[in-house]
Design goal:
proton-transporting ATP synthase activity, rotational mechanism, mainly alpha, 88 residues, 0% strand, ATP synthase subunit H, mitochondrial, 2 helices, single chain
């Protein structure tokens, strides 16, 4: 057989991996700690926010607010002036 293959197989058979210790994983992991429970929102503040939302005036785009004049729409389309054909 091939001498390189024999050398490789001999080294492979002679290899003994280091035994795994139970403490080896501790250096690479973090301890789990339960996160703090979130605070629940206050019921009173929710009711106040809901009431203020329900009493808000509806704003519609394109409508003038009370006391304001409606914006005048401008014509931005520019037509090219046609030149009158010259007589020969």
């Amino acid at each position: 057989a091939d001498p390189v293959q024999e050398l490789y197989l001999r080294e492979l058979r002679a290899y003994k991996p280091a035994p795994v210790k139970p403490g080896d994983a501790e250096a690479h992991t973090q301890k789990f700690s339960v996160p703090a429970a979130p605070k629940s929102p206050e019921e009173a503040s929710l009711a106040n926010e809901l009431n203020s939302y329900e009493t808000q005036e509806v704003e519609v785009e394109g409508q003038a607010a009370t006391g304001e004049a409606a914006p005048v729409e401008e014509s931005w389309f520019e037509e090219e002036e046609e030149e009158a054909p010259t007589a020969h």
